[in-house]
Amino acid sequence: MAASYLSVPTTHFNLNHNALYSTRIPCFSSSSMSIPTISMLPTHSSLHVPHVISAIVTCKRVFRITALAQETEQVTEKAESEEDTEKGPEEAVAEEKSQGKITKSSLRGTKLYVGNLPRACDSARLTQIFQEFGTVESAEVICNEETGISRGFAYVTMNNDEEALAAIEKLRGYDLDGRDMLVNFPARLLSPGVGCRVYIGNIAWSVKRESLRALFSQYGNVLGLRINYDRKDGVPRVYGFVFLSAKSEVNAVVAALNGKEFHGRGLVVRVAKPYK
C-alpha cells in the first residue's frame, strides 16, 4: 500500500522569512484514491488549518472504511468455504429436481432420509419423533467414521408405506433445535454443482429464521433453512443456507435478493458452492 504525505503546520515560525514550516505526516490510502503532498504551508491569510486537519481525518476514515469492506468480503468468503468443507450429503434431499405433493403412486418403500439434523440428535430421539406416525423399524444417525460425530443426517425405516408417507407430510420442515428437518424418500445424489442450495451472507445479527424464511418464500419453495451464528476470530458473523426445490427458484432468488437491504444490511445471496 502506497503512502502519501499531508503536511500539518507546527509551532516553528521563522521571523526572517515570515513563513510557517510544516511537518510531514503519512496518510495511507487505497489504490483507488490518492492524496496530494504538501511540503510547506505559507502563512498567508488564505491558510485554513482546520481544512488540513479535516483532510487528514477524511483520509483516515476512507482507509478504515476500505479496509472494513475488504475484511467483510474476506469473512463472507471464509464462512462459506468453512461450511462447504465440513458438510456432507445431508442436504441431498433438497437437491432433487422437484419436490411437489407426494402421492401414494410415488412411494418408494419405507426407508426415509432425514437431513439437516443438529449434531446432538441421536437415534433414540429420532425414534421418539417418528413413532408418533407409526412403528419405527430402525433409526440410524450417520456419523463420521473417524470422529464419531454426527454428519447431520440419518435414515429411518417405518413399518409400511402409509406410515412413511404420513411422516414425510407431517415432519418435513419440523423445527428441531432451531433447524428445519428435511424428510423424504432417499434421493439420488446429483452431480456437484447442480444443487438447489443458496448461500446467504452478511445477515444482520438480529434476523430471525422466521423472517428470513418468509422473505425467501416469496421467490421459491423453501424446503429447509439453516442459519449459523459465528464469533470465530473475534469477528461476529451470521450466514446461512436456503434449500429450494428447483434450479429456476434458485436463479429467481439470487436475482431478486442479492444486495437487497434486510434489517439494515445488504444481503449477499448466491448459488452455494458444490460439496467437496
TrEMBL record:
Residues 86-99 have a biased composition (Basic and acidic residues). GO terms for biological process: chloroplast rRNA processing. Residues 73-102 are annotated as: Disordered. The keyword RNA-binding applies. Residues 110-188, 196-274 form the RRM domain. The keyword RNA-binding applies. Keywords: RNA-binding. SUPFAM superfamilies: RNA-binding domain, RBD (SSF54928). One of its GO terms (molecular function) is mRNA binding. It comes from the Eukaryota. GO terms for cellular component: chloroplast thylakoid membrane. PANTHER family: OS02G0815200 PROTEIN, RNA-BINDING (RRM_RBD_RNP MOTIFS) FAMILY PROTEIN. This is RRM domain-containing protein. It comes from Taxus chinensis (Chinese yew).
